[in-house]
Specification:
Length: 291
């Protein structure tokens, strides 16, 4: 028997969709317009075609920023995903005071605005007044995130891990809580090891939420701007100049609107392509689970 679908719900969300489309399409069209033209002021534009795209794709500056961005995202995912799973596995399994307390404490970093996070760690890492910088200096460790590229990278990575690991923990914990009790009872009867329980029960049941966590963390880490800009400003030198920071410098600092527009479109397409790949994998996993 063929199921009939009620389409009336679309009329409820249609105004929101129109508003979002209107607010998104107009800025996008403006960016597209700048990406294929050049201007010398006074609103005089000259058609240049794909010249800006070719310039960006061949730019060593963009290649270097992309390399730093990919390295940062890879490090973040390699740390936060396993760490988030580990913390979720060791949280209280039963609902109660302690599980609620853990969830509240884990959610606190997620509530802090990004610019405030950058300010906190900027002060925290200072040698003169920051607890971290002052302590390391007294221990004889030469730490200065404003002058040493390695120190700047370590500071930004630790900052991002502190800020966003909680998201992976909360999603992983939700996936663990959705596993029915009989699975664990059967594993206990079979005398399965802790690793076997994780490998064959918990990890497969968490695949969906883990893909969502990886997708969200990829998108955010690949577009990160506020936190590293507040802490290091992209320095020392260009050591922490990621794609977003380089794009802002190009658009606002140098006022190269054409190349910046082409840069932003390429940036957007890369993120869209990877997000589409994650979405396809998730849909295929759901289909396999339904079979």
């Amino acid at each position: 028997m063929k199921k009939t679908r009620n389409q009336k719900a679309w009329f409820m969300v249609l105004p929101v969709l129109i508003l979002v489309a209107f607010s998104a399409i107009i800025p996008l069209m403006t960016v597209v317009n700048y990406s294929v033209q050049d201007t010398f002021g006074n609103n005089n534009f000259f058609w240049v075609g794909l010249e800006w795209f070719e310039e960006i794709l061949a730019s060593d500056r963009v290649h270097d920023a992309l390399g730093r961005q990919v390295t940062f995202t890879a490090i973040i995912l390699a740390i936060e995903v396993p760490l988030g799973i580990f913390i979720a596995l060791h949280m209280p399994k039963k609902s109660g005071f302690w599980s609620s307390l853990c969830l509240v404490l884990l959610a606190l970093p997620l509530l802090i605005p990004w610019n405030v996070v950058g300010t906190i760690w900027q002060i925290f890492g200072r040698i003169d007044i920051g607890l971290l910088g002052y302590t390391l200096d007294k221990m004889g460790i030469n730490y200065n995130y404003t002058q040493n590229a390695l120190d700047a990278w370590i500071t930004i990575i630790i900052m991002d891990v502190w800020h966003w690991t909680s998201l992976v923990v909360l999603l992983s914990y939700a996936g663990l809580r959705s596993i029915p009790g009989p699975y664990y009872q059967a594993a206990k009867i079979d005398q399965a090891s802790r690793w076997a329980v994780f490998r064959h029960i918990e990890l497969p049941k968490m695949k969906g939420v883990l893909l969502i966590a990886i997708l969200l963390r990829f998108m955010d880490s690949f577009m990160i701007y506020t936190e590293p800009f507040v802490v290091t400003g992209g320095g020392p030198g260009n050591a922490t100049t990621f794609l977003s920071i380089d794009l802002v410098k190009m658009a606002i600092g140098q006022f190269d609107l054409g190349p910046a527009a082409a840069f932003s479109l390429i940036y957007f397409l890369v993120i869209l392509l990877v997000s589409w790949a994650f979405y396809t994998v998730m849909m295929n996993m759901d289909k396999e689970a339904d079979v």
